[in-house]
Amino acid sequence: xxxxxxxRALPATEELALARRALDAGDLAHAANHVAxxxxxxxxxxxxxxxxxxxxxxxxxxxxxxxPLQHHTFxxxxxxxxxxxxxxxxxxxxLDLLVAATxxxxxxxxxxxxxxxxxxxAERIGPDRAVQVLMQVCAAAPDPVPVADRPALAAYLTLARxxxxxxxxxxxxxxxxxxxARRVGEVTLAVRWAARGVRAAPSKMGEVWLGYALRSxxxxxxxxxALRRAVDHDPDDLAVYADIAGTLADHGRxxxxxxxxxxxxxxxxxxxxxxxTAHRLRFQHDGDVRHLVExxxxxxxxxxxxxxxxxxxxxxxxxxxxxxxTPPAPSPATAAPGPAGSEAGSTGVDPTPSTVxxxxxxTGLDAVATMVGPTASxxxxxxxxxxxxxxxxxxPHPPAAYDTAVTLxxxxxxxxxxxxxxxxxxxxxxxxxVLSGQDPSLWIRCVQVxxxxxxxxxxxxxxxxxxxxxxxxxxxxxxxxxxxxxxxFALVTAAWVDPSVRADVAQLVADRLTAARERAVLSLAHLAxxxxxxxxxxxxxxxxxxxxxxxxxxxxxxxxxxxLRMFRPRLPxxxxxx
Length: 578
Hints:
Blueprint: H1 12-24, H2 28-41, H3 46-58, H4 75-87, H5 91-104, H6 114-117, H7 119-140, H8 154-166, H9 171-183, H10 187-200, H11 204-216, H12 220-233, H13 238-250, H14 254-267, H15 272-286, H16 290-301, H17 311-316, H18 353-356, H19 360-363, H20 366-372, H21 381-390, H22 398-404, H23 413-421, H24 430-438, H25 440-455, H26 468-477, H27 483-497, H28 502-515, H29 522-529, H30 536-548, H31 554-567
Region (Disordered): 323-360
Pfam families: TPR_19
Protein name: Tetratricopeptide repeat protein
């Protein structure tokens, strides 16, 4: 389904005027295009539907030939065809198209028209077709639906009410209606309908719908009882075990939750819902990043899971380096010397602040000068543009950050290092303006982190041990904080996505943390705690350092939290439950 055909955004009144003019001239095709455009701008405006009716009357087959369904069909044309199908006595087919439009643009009130909300519709389509429509709406809607989008679903809730009035004891209808009511905030109604459905026709799904409704109403004990009855109906549905475990965990009963999910894994160790929930709960229990790494491995090895899950992103959200950058640590005026023979110290360049600009002394950019020499060139305009588009202080989880940075893969090495030596200005966006006005150093941090992630995609055909990407990142990591930590994060991200490099990266991080031990760098300690395969002693050191310096740089961290609340990237969440 397409947004439009020619990029126009005419007001509905102008679209209607053009449609009527085309109608008067007998040009039905152009009239149809303008009616479709008017429907997108004002889907419930009576004048639009009057013009559509005129168009149908002037056509040989009620106007359906003017709105054919193709591979990419304008959403306005889909909605127009839905209304014409209903007028032609085929309302069930029309409903299917309206639901498709709702899935495409959930904030528009596509169904808020008399023929959908009429009590007669429920009688004409029957309970089974009503169930199908409500299920489609629930599948298309988030759970819960944002308050601003709820009015657009009001017509479907009216359809549910009308259908229940006609079929008051239809258990499946009551359950699906409850699911929709819960999503749009009608929790009391959802509980009432689900309870009626269970009484009318006891079933696993009925108990699940009732459990979800009770949980949304804050009646946790009753919700758990309903979900346990669902297990009694079908002990092999491990998704319900995961629901029970998640509910218990959400209410502080983590040990019970782990028991339920472990029981599910005994039945099927590879069931995706149970695996995702298990790793999330284990991480909540002991904070060991190993569980999240194992979950990332499972996701990589099982690309065809039954549906997408959000457990990994949920666990990483708000955690330093797992889901967001940390504020830059204080840096000495010059880089600490790297180990003998290391890449960072092999060029013989003695960088000065004039090499990379006045920001070098506070951002660690002098380490970059060592890598690129005293005549580092600024990045190309295209490199700066790409960087501005993707740089953000948060990401769903390390593998997602790696995937996002692929847009920098075609930049050459000079451009990537140029981005570090000459950070682009902040973008002219809301995020950029906040960063510029509040703390520009966080933008520099974003540039460093995402550029180093881009370096991970440089010459990926080269074997890791002798690759350019490893050599450059290791060299940068052996400098001072700032760029060094960004480079280390890129190396850690490589370990998340490629198990074969984990031992190498864990050793690099351990060496860096041990060298910085006396300064107890908080950010570096958190980075170590995000590293796959880190040895126990280094993990213990990282925990100690993170605890010792857990209250430093409060102002920067508070600002970062505000930024993440304001500009958190939109993430794909888990699919809605039944």
